[in-house]
Amino acid sequence: MVKGANVGLASLSEDVSSVVLSLAWGSAAGDGDADVSVLLLDANGTVRNDADFLFYNNPAAADGSVQLLGKTPTADGSEDRISLDLTAMPSGVERVVVAASRYRDARFGDLDDLRITIADHTGEALLGFSITDAGVESAFIFGELYRRGEEWKFRAVGQGYETGLAGLATDFGIDVDDTSEEEPEEPVGGMDPSAVVVEAPAESPVTVPAQAAAPEEAAARPRRPRTAKKKVTLPQTAQKSLAENDAWRQARLFPASSLKNDRERETRATSVLLSVMAQVPEFGRRLTAAFGAPAGRMQTFTEVSLPHGDTPKRPDGVVRVERAGKLWTALVETKTNGNPLKPEQVQDYMDIAARRGYEAVITLSNDVALEGRPLVDVKIDGRRKHKVTLWHLSWAEVTHQAQMLIRHEGVGNAAHAWLLHELLHYLQHENSGCHGFQNMGSAWVPVRKGIEEETLCQGDHRALEVAESWERLVRQVCLRLGGELGQKVLPVHQRAKRGTDPQARRVALADSFCESGRLNAEIRIDGTPGIMALVADLRTGKLRTSIEVPAPEQGYPLTWAKRLVRQLAEAPADLHIETLVQGEGGGPRGTLERLRPEPADILPKDSSQITGFRLSLLKGMGSARGNAEFGFIRSVDDAVDRFYSNVVAHLESRQARSPRPVGAATTG
User: Fold this and answer.
1) pLDDT-based confidence at 230, cuts 50/70/90?
2) Which of 116, 118, 108 minimizes the C-alpha distance to 83?
């Protein structure tokens, strides 16, 4: 589409009752980001109340009509998705404005490939609009959906605001009020801690980021985060146990200790998950909205027998959602304990779903799907008018969503929080078989030996298998860490030529791995001053975690060095610190133990300009391919946790305070 054009959704698909909007962008450095927001407007072009403003701290409408689904990484940046259930949209809403905003001095002109796409509930793209004229704007309206009689239409807007999200919000009837007298609180979701309170007509205040405010003004004014309907989260500190001794075991709603085989594990895991999805609306909606399910009354079933030729088939579960008299149905196939999905089994369920008019088949296993790569290859009969979409969930993603709700975002009542807590305890039990990606694959041992003996050649398919397993592991590390912290944690893909598909990028990484013997990854954690780098060196058997901290814009180098050492008061003595200087060559380096009494030793002796500091920790790497105590996967988890908790969490960020260290609070 071109700027200003509009089109009716009904002309693009037979069923546009629910759609998914994707806002995407990228940057050459991989550090550009923005956050989406949605405004629901009445016939006067203004929000009706504060609930009509959906953003990072108010991610879902109470009626299920709008839900912000969060970010997913792409080859060049990230993609932020929004689910819209148009059948649930209140009659008083005439327009749905879809926007995105950046923070501080960040501008949309610094990002590449700004675009919005709309897909139907099956995931098939219906239209797209690219913004090519972005410049100094810090907020942008990408597009809007609006009613024309009984039909919904989309308009490509592409309008920018130099005054940020606050300026955009003002245009739609929200009055900015920067005179709040309340004390500042912890920023939510890793967003900018500076915020202004804005008031919607006749309702309670809404908070949006203060992008237009100068830093010194923002620091001088007290702020308060948005206080929507109070939700229940688990207490950060576990209550003291009433047990007489540690041998007493707490009674559990979902016991896992008695499970004896894989079949029992699969049956129990499916029943536990589906029952909690049906009883906790926020959780069930969170897992199914990305698959095109509407917001409505959900029921779940297990071990359902469905006719298929001479022999009936029994999928592990069925999810049904009713909305306005219409049913959305998905079949569920579950695997636990690292067991692989069977293509022929999934194919049968796809055929059954197509014949019966079901919308989706959901596979659930410990494996993590790769971008642009289906976990199971199935054949789609193009002659069938009804489309069935195949989706995949990892147990790690299920755990992540449960953690986000009960530890950070909250649910409707205490009973729902308790149910999610019991689910989380079950998933994390050693006997549940729901522990996520746990095996680097059969190629791991021969590739590791090939690296040690320098006999591994580029183009070896086994190296590609290891590179793919490494990507799965990094994605899972991000899910786990994000769930612990309540922050957005995303992998930063190695940069490839624009337009290169993800598989070609993996092939290039595998070739580099064969040559260097190193597996590299970068992880972006909201609220931290830089990107965490992770290197697994198979030749030395070491894991290196590091982060580059930019030099402050003001002050003196000696002050910077002293402040850095002071922030790292509780960091390990063997932390390696290197000064980054402009131009070729590196600056001084040393361990924290040596630099604590003499921070000036880290400063260059000449007049080299300091650009930042690189902090690194080395740790022994596990060699086994699995998740045993001394396995590679466990060693990667431990290295990331140690580096974040002991180093990154104590660094000052110019954007937001870092969240608490991993493991600083428990839920019992």
Assistant:
1) low
2) 118
- For residue 179, what are the contacts with CB-CB under 8 A and spacing of at least 6? none
Nearest to 408 by CA among 238, 187, 184, 233: 233
Q: Which residues fall within 8 angstroms of residue 190, CB to CB, at 6 or more apart?
A: 487, 488, 525, 526, 527, 656, 659
Burial label for 74, CB within 10 Å (0-12, 13-18, 19+), is: middle
| Residue 127: both structure tokens together | 């239209």
Residues 100 and 187: their CA atoms lie apart, in Å, by: 19
For 353, the token pair is 């779903």
Q: Rounded to an integer, what distance in angstroms lies between the CA atom of residue 319 and that of residue 326? A: 14
> What confidence score (pLDDT) does residue 517 get?
93
The token pair that represents 262 in the structure block: 């894989």
Per-residue pLDDT at 489 exceeds 70: yes
For the chain, report the end-to-end CA distance as a whole number of angstroms.
53
Sheet containing strand 205-209, edge to edge, reads 175-177, 195-199, 205-209
Residue 490 and residue 523 in contact, taking contact as beta carbons nearer than 8 Å: yes
Please say if the pLDDT value at position 177 is more than 60.
no
Encode 572-584: b = buried (16+ Cβ within 10 Å), e = exposed.
Answer: eeebbbbbbbeee
Tokens of 120: 């139907």
Q: How are beta strands 326-334 and 360-365 bridged, if at all?
A: parallel
What band does 668 get if pLDDT is binned at 50, 70 and 90?
Answer: very low
CA 477 – CA 471 distance, rounded (Å): 10
Question: Where on the phi/psi map is residue 109: left (φ > 0), alpha (ψ -120 to 50), or beta?
Answer: alpha
DSSP per-residue codes, 70-132: EEEE-SSEEEEEEEEETTSS-TT--EEEEEEE--TT--GGGSEEEEEEEEETTS-EEEEEEE-
Say if residue 428 is exposed, middle or buried (CB neighbours under 10 Å; 0-12, 13-18, 19+).
Answer: middle
> Whole-angstrom Cα distance, residue 184 to residue 195?
9
Cβ atoms of 85 and 323 closer than 8 Å: yes
Beta bridge mates, 131: 114
- Name residue 394's beta-bridge partners: 365
Residues in Cβ contact with 31 at an 8 Å cutoff, skipping those fewer than 6 apart: 492, 524, 531
pLDDT at 207 over 50: no
Q: Smallest Cα–Cα separation from 188: which of 320, 322, 55?
A: 55
Query: What separation in angstroms does the CA of 69 have from each of 59, 124, 401?
Result: 8, 17, 11
Categorize the per-residue pLDDT at 181 as very low, low, confident or very high, splitting at 50, 70 and 90.
Answer: very low
Give the 3-state secondary structure percentages of the chain, helix then strand then coil, rounded to 5: 25, 30, 45
Say if strands 112-120 and 18-26 run parallel, antiparallel, or are unpaired. antiparallel
pTM: 0.73
Average pLDDT, whole number, for the chain? 83
Ramachandran assignment for 654, one of left (phi > 0), alpha (psi -120 to 50 degrees), beta (any other): alpha
Give me the DSSP letters along 206-257. Answer: EEEE-TTS-HHHHHHS-------S--B---SSPPPP--SSTTPPPP-SS--T
Task: Express each pLDDT in 86-132 by its tens digit.
Answer: 888 999 999 999 999 987 778 898 888 899 999 887 778 899 999 99
Q: Which amino acid is at 457?
A: C
How many secondary structure helices (H) and strands (E) does the chain include? 13, 26
Q: How large is the greatest C-alpha to C-alpha distance in the chain, in angstroms?
A: 83
Pair of tokens at residue 114 = 């700004």
**What pLDDT sits at residue 500?**
61
Closest CA to 437 of 618, 593, 625, 255: 625
CA dist 79 → 140, 530, 608 (Å): 15, 20, 39
